[in-house]
Amino acid sequence: MKQTIARVALVVGDYDKAIAFYTKKLDFNLIEDTDLGDGKRWVIVAPPGSKECSLVLAEADDEKQLASVGNQTGGRVFLFLYTDDFWRDYYKMMERKIKFVRSPEKMPYGMVAVFEDLYGNLWDLLEPIKNLQQEQQQQQQ
């Protein structure tokens, strides 16, 4: 049996602002934006090169949902953006005024820094240790 997590719903305050942030600040691809009527849309974004998991941007439509925008995990890191080049993406995000709340740090699992999306959700920007080890091996050759 093979299973994958294909989509993660992210409650947002506004479809268009969320699309702009993810596509212009983080370089995600807009995969789909379908009007479902009554103000609802089916909006999917994904990082470049992503094959299995993407985000469904779900605009809040009541007070309970609005209360969770930006805090879907009670203040913990919510999403993990893996990269093949930490420093390239970190500096690009800094230039684009992405707010980092934890500075870059080499951890046992890789190089990581924590940033906020436009609503305050916390993300890890992470280059896994296997990528770092491969880079070191290539530099030594």
Written description of the protein model:
The chain has 141 residues and is of the alpha/beta class. The protein contains four helices and eight strands. Helices cover 28% and strands 40% of the residues. The strands form two sheets. A four-stranded mixed beta sheet has the order 1-4-3-2. Strands 5-8-7-6 form a four-stranded mixed beta sheet. The longest helix has 12 residues, at 129-140.
Which descriptors would you attach to this protein?
single chain; 141 residues; alpha/beta; 4-stranded mixed sheet; 28% helix; globular
Secondary structure: elements and pairs:
Blueprint lengths: L6 E6 L2 H11 L3 E9 L2 E7 L7 E6 L3 H6 L8 E6 L3 H10 L4 E8 L2 E7 L5 E7 H12 L1
Parallel strand pairs: 1-4, 5-8
Antiparallel strand pairs: 2-3, 3-4, 6-7, 7-8
